[in-house]
């Protein structure tokens, strides 16, 4: 759905979801993959933990838990990713690249 078709409350909800830096980094990581390519939760957690300056096993586990229970379900509900919690794999959707939603593309660019 393009930004012009969203209600103000839907836009506000999307902006709130994208306000989190980890979610924006997650979308950046997925954007580097081939379209339709799936990424394992463990690989995504490793990459995000490293981007956040930590490579300890405990930190990667904490990142994976936060992704599984908080961030990926929110992004999935918003249509920005497809997350399979059973298989623990995620892939970007067309909406996650920002081009489908010009009003949110600036939020998808990391500071």
TrEMBL record:
Record region (Disordered): 91-111
InterPro entries linked to this entry: DUF7344, WH-like_DNA-bd_sf, WH_DNA-bd_sf
Domain DUF7344 positions: 15-91
UniProt biased composition (Basic and acidic residues): 91-102
Superkingdom of the organism of origin: Archaea
Protein name in UniProt: DUF7344 domain-containing protein
Species assigned in the record: Halosimplex aquaticum
């Amino acid at each position: 759905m393009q930004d012009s078709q969203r209600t103000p409350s839907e836009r506000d909800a999307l902006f709130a979801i994208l306000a989190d830096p980890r979610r924006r980094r997650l979308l950046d990581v997925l954007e580097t993959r081939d379209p339709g390519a799936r990424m394992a939760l463990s690989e995504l957690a490793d990459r995000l933990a490293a981007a956040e300056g930590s490579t300890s096993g405990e930190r990667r586990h904490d990142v994976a838990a936060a992704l599984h229970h908080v961030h990926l379900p929110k992004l999935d509900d918003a249509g920005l990713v497809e997350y399979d919690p059973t298989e623990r794999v995620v892939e970007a959707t067309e909406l996650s690249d920002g081009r489908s939603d010009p009003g949110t593309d600036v939020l998808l660019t990391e500071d």
